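Hello forum,

I keep getting stuck at the same step: I have a sequence, I want structure tokens, and every attempt I make locally crashes halfway through. Rather than fight my setup again tonight, could one of you with a working pipeline run this one for me? It's a single chain of 419 residues.
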Amino acid sequence: MLSIKEKLAQLQGERSAPAHQAVQPSSDPQGMAELELLAETTPTGSVWRRQRHISQALAPMVDLAACSRLAGMDLALIAKSWDFRDLAAKDLIFIDTETTGLAGGSGTYAFLVGLARLHQDGLAIRQYFLLNQGQERSMLQAIGEEMGSAKALISFNGKSYDVPLLRSRFILNRLPFAWEASPHLDLLHAARRIWKGMDGYALTNLEREVLRFQREGDVPGYQIPELYFTAVRSGQFAPLKGIFQHNVMDLLSLAGLLVHAQRRFQLREEPQSRDITGIVRTLIELGLDEMAEGFCQSHLTLRPDAPWPLVMRQHARILKRQRKYGDMVRLWEKWIGNMATFNLEPYEELAKYFEHIAHDYGRALQIIERAWQRLEISSQMGSRTLATTALYANLQKRRLRVSKKLKKLRDHEGSAYDG
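Reply #2:
Ran it on my machine without issues. Output:
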């Protein structure tokens, strides 16, 4: 029976390899030299490994030098986790796998695992290749030893796919899997938070929209399992060269996304207004309120055409958390002053403040009356809609409540004066 993921792949015109295929390997593998694979003998068996060093000249679309200079604070912001605060770029290991199926499960295994480490002069990549399943234990052991030298993982969808898959294979091979508690930055999650409103978050889409490059002649992911099984059956492995390059490109793109994410937080790469929410929320959740406030102020300075509601809302929430009520009031008033079309939100927030925090019911009522007058003007200029009716109802409800509180306060003050 096909899994849901396999059915979806078929509906999209993609052929997903079954989670498990009985493949009879060839006894005479050819093409290993073309793939630049070298066999290493280990106590548990042979391991096929390919080593590549990607310099800046070979990958001009990714700023590898900038990536190698990433500091712990940069990583903490991108990951939204203080677990990365004391780390540096040299402590990271990038991971990407090519597997025998899209569905996952115990029958799916990784036949190519790419690991990369940053150096000042580029990216050092080691690709571990599984010639046949009899070598899986030795390959996993070598991978485990190399991963053990790093302090944190960087992946794309690795939390949901790569790492759980490797964990299951380690367990099936009775090997310890020691990276459960390691800091893990999944750039798919970070991308969804930092770059809002994209058409999709496939890695190739992020390459096109964020990194500004597009792969040429790349092997489609859904073809990879079948290409591997064909090579294992025939013993002709040279046709897998495109898969090895696909894996290298995935790893390079992870480095590129780290750099662009860092630039968003440093305002060195001007964010779209739609991205402000995710960035500011990240700063707030990390307790960096002042940095979040500065980010909002800087964005309004750099982008005078920025949508006021979006930025003002975030800025005002920060000021409210900090209990900087005077600044918050001035900000809501500034929004009202710059308002081209009617928006109830700043009036409502001001009324809430004066009613519930300052207990200045007279001022709260003044704000409500200003909103009512502005809504009247807005209604006269266009047709009355259900949304407009709801705004009137909201204001009337608030007006009646505040009026009662104000009357009660004045009656109390009057009786106190009479006494």
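The first strand starts at residue 38 and ends at 42. If your local run keeps crashing, start a new thread with the error log.
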